[in-house]
Amino acid sequence: MSDKRPDRSAQSARARLETPGSRWRGFHIDVEAVGRVSESIARFLGTGKYLVIQTVVVVVWIILNVAAVGLQWDPYPFILLNLAFSTQAAYAAPLILLAQNRQENRDRVSLEEDRARAEQTKADTEFLARELASLRLAVGEVATRDYLRRELDEIKSLLAERDIEDARVNR
After folding, report:
1. pTM, 2 dp
2. Which domain of life is it from (predicted)?
3. Is 7 a domain residue?
4. Long-range contacts of 43-52 (CB under 8 A, 24+ apart)
5. What is the pLDDT of residues 3-53, one digit of tens each?
């Protein structure tokens, strides 16, 4: 008997390829936590506070390696400092890209929600316009309060005139 269903291992492999980095050799990585941390790091890297801290560290590094003869762990071409900057850039760029991708996903979801809300608002507006048009037609055929007052006032004045004429005739 042949089973026509796809192999579960093939399905799980496909699911793993479609979901970025959820599990790796039994080690669970919380994608949302990594994303939140990367966003916080990316936000910090884009602040003036970070630039001031980095500038102070670089100035202190250079002063110690140029002026303090006994502490020169990184002489003039500052190769270790360049290596530190390269390492920082190698980690900062992917973290910033990850934060941008998460923001793009949030923007896409927000745009979809806005579109759905706009469609619903448009449908509601069209419905209300139809209802208002039907009410206008219905009100056009129905006696309004002002119309009834005018008619009653007219009847009242006719009755008053008739009473006056009857009073003249009966005298």
Report:
1. 0.50
2. Bacteria
3. no
4. 43/99, 45/92, 45/95, 45/96
5. 555 555 555 555 555 555 555 566 788 888 888 888 888 888 888 999 999
